[in-house]
Amino acid sequence: MSSNQHPMLNVAVKAARAAGAIINRAALDVESVRISQKQVNDFVTEVDHASERAVIETLLGAYPTHGIWAEESGREHGNASSDHVWVIDPLDGTTNFIHGFPVYCVSIALLVKGRVEQAVVYDPTRNDLFTATRGRGAYVNDRRLRVSKRTQLKDSLVSTGFPFRPGDNFNVYLRMMADVMQRTAGLRRPGAAALDLAYVAAGFTEGFFETGLSPWDVAAGSLLVTEAGGLVGNFTGEADFLEQKECVAGNPKVYGQLVQILKKHSKFASAGEKADLRQNTPTLVDPALRPGTQVDEAPAKDA
């Protein structure tokens, strides 16, 4: 850990590395990991819980008066009335992890009076440590990060996340994907939103968009992007996105182009924009094929 880092960021780095060590040990024999299902296609493992405990113990060991807002345990730990709240995703990309697909990370952010001030995203498979302190820039392994300089969406690589939870609107997502995909150099779905945002900050991709995300998915990554010179907001371009379950990020030029495409799909779009969208786009996915829906096979017809 660098002596030049903010003391709270140093503690977050220590917590992330402790969690990463737990994840890496479990990854050596991932088939023996106990898995449960929170809802359809939404998994949690004993590794998520062990990683979260390690992070919370490290953070509260250093700052016992701070609050905790974690994916698995919610707000049951720490001081619920504190202005300093640690937002934790102990294993972002759990589905990737349980399949041995090496794209997952630990995400830790510190909110001070509701604003992200410190951020760590740690990829234990590559030992890549992404960090940011508000006003001090973003780094990966002590190397300064800057967003990509590409200015045209048609030349850009954009990442996203596919809807997979019950209640997700597949038709809206597929219309968004179609609108974006045909205007880019490529669309990618790695499967861990915190890393997707870190990769925008690093300039590996020019943009990112996804719906249905929780604050622990995006808090740390959002500070990485802005400290690397990028922009983050909801689909209409408003910066207060953390709890709105829609997120778009990118370098300034690509961000603006993505917002122009995505804003009509936003839940904050005007009634007129939503009506136009419904009238002008067909249904792309049979509602019966959405997650959690039992589809009975049709009886075979006689030859």
What is the gyration radius calculated from CA atoms? 20 Å
Number of helical elements: 8
Q: Structural class of the helices, strands and pairings?
A: alpha+beta
Distance between the termini: 71 Å
Kindly identify the CATH topology of the largest domain: Fructose-1,6-Bisphosphatase, Chain A, domain 1
Main sheet? 7 strands, mixed
Domain unit count: 2
The CATH top-level class label of the largest domain: Alpha Beta
CATH architecture of the largest domain: 2-Layer Sandwich
In round numbers, the mean pLDDT is: 88
Which band does the percent of strand residues land in? 15-25%
Helix proportion of residues, in percent? 25-40%
Q: Stretches where pLDDT falls below 50 for ≥5 residues?
A: 293-303
Order of helices and strands: HEEHEEHEEEEEEHEHEHEEHH
Q: What form results from the Cα inertia axes?
A: globular
CATH-assigned homologous superfamily of the largest domain? Fructose-1,6-Bisphosphatase, subunit A, domain 1
Binding site for Mg(2+): 71, 89, 91-92, 217
Cofactor: Mg(2+)
Region (Disordered): 272-303
Catalytic activity: a myo-inositol phosphate + H2O = myo-inositol + phosphate
Description:
The protein has about 300 residues and is an alpha+beta fold. The protein folds into two domains: about 140 residues, Fructose-1,6-Bisphosphatase, subunit A, domain 1 (Fructose-1,6-Bisphosphatase, Chain A, domain 1, 2-Layer Sandwich), CATH 3.30.540.10; about 130 residues, 3-Layer(aba) Sandwich (D-Maltodextrin-Binding Protein, domain 2), CATH 3.40.190. Helix content is about 35%, strand content about 25%. It contains eight helices and 14 strands. The strands form three sheets. It has a seven-stranded mixed beta sheet, with helices on both faces. Strand 1 and strand 2 form a beta hairpin. The longest helix has 21 residues. The termini are far apart. Belongs to the inositol monophosphatase superfamily. Its EC number is 3.1.3.25. Keywords: Hydrolase, Magnesium, Metal-binding. This is Inositol-1-monophosphatase. InterPro entries: IMPase, Inositol_monoP_metal-BS, Inositol_monophosphatase-like, Inositol_monophosphatase_CS, Inositol_monophosphatase_SuhB.
